[in-house]
Amino acid sequence: MKETELICVGALAGSYGVQGEVRLKSFCADPTAIADYNPLCAEDGSGSYIVTLTRPIKNGLAARVTTISTKEEADAAKGLRLFAPRDRLPTLPDDEFYHADLIGLSVHDTGGTLLGRVKAVLDHGAGDILEIQQPGGSATVLLPFTREAVPTVDLDGARIVADPPEGLF
Q1: Which pLDDT tens digit goes with each residue over 102-114?
Q2: What is the pLDDT of residues 126-143, one digit of tens each?
Q3: Which of 46, 56, 58, 135 sits at 20 to 30 Å (Cα–Cα) from 16?
Q4: Burial (CB count <10 Å: 0-12, 13-18, 19+), residue 140
């Protein structure tokens, strides 16, 4: 992992009002911390976006973003994911992980059998779920990202040891 790696910290969800404000979804543990990582950029490293939070709103935050000054520009930017360099983000405790660190890791059962690779980390509000692509195909399995189902995450070894519920794989 490179220290200059970009981590997704938020996304624009369209306009808020008619004065050029945007709806902002923050993916930070403390949603308002997203402004601490300015300037942000797009996934490819392009652009420079300074986010200024204006107020909390339902399902997110209202914000002003440099380069966006009209409702039309805010609507056009809907879906833009905002990234910060990893070296600007806090170091996490041992039992917490950035989603970007988990994607691509191999997943093995407690006996060492390869179950697949982490394709995505999903969060639908009730906790994180690992989407695991099984070897040799496109089929995926959803595994709860809990201590019981995933007792070991070895970032240095690029692997996860899973103890999935009976019959999942």
Answers
A1: 999 999 998 889 9
A2: 788 999 999 988 889 999
A3: 46
A4: middle
